[in-house]
C-alpha cells in the first residue's frame, strides 16, 4: 500500500511563565514551512512530534493549551530550555 507523504504541520507556542503556553502560529504545507523557517532564523529550538502538533493545531490561535496537553508541552519546553541553556525556569 502506498502512503502519500503528509504535508508538514507546524505549531508555534509562546510561554511567558504566566498561565499556560499559548498557540501563536499554526498551519500546514507552505505556511508550516514558513513557521519552521522563521523559527530557525530566530534560533528557536524545534522539536518534531507529529501527534502533538496535530493535537495543538486544534487549539484556536491565541488560546492557552488544554490541560490534557500540559505534560507533553512541558517536555517540549524542557527540551527548548535545555537546548538554549536556559535552566532557570522560575
Automatic annotation (TrEMBL):
GO terms for cellular component: plasma membrane. The keyword Protein biosynthesis does not apply. Keywords: Bacterial flagellum protein export, Protein transport, Transport. Belongs to the type III secretion exporter family. Pfam families: Bac_export_2. GO terms for biological process: protein secretion. The keyword tRNA processing does not apply. Required for formation of the rod structure in the basal body of the flagellar apparatus. Together with FliI and FliH, may constitute the export apparatus of flagellin. InterPro entries: T3SS_substrate_exporter, T3SS_substrate_exporter_C. This is Flagellar biosynthetic protein FlhB. It comes from the Bacteria. Gene3D superfamilies: secretion proteins EscU.
Amino acid at each position: 500500500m502506498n502512503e502519500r507523504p503528509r504535508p508538514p504541520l507546524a505549531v508555534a507556542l509562546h510561554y511567558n511563565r504566566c498561565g499556560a503556553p499559548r498557540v501563536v502560529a499554526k498551519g500546514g504545507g507552505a505556511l508550516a514551512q514558513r513557521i519552521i523557517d522563521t523559527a530557525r532564523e530566530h534560533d528557536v529550538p524545534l522539536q518534531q512530534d507529529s501527534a502533538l502538533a496535530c493535537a495543538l493545531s486544534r487549539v484556536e490561535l491565541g488560546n492557552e493549551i488544554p490541560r490534557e496537553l500540559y505534560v507533553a508541552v512541558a517536555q517540549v519546553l524542557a527540551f527548548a530550555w535545555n537546548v538554549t541553556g536556559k535552566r532557570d525556569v522560575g
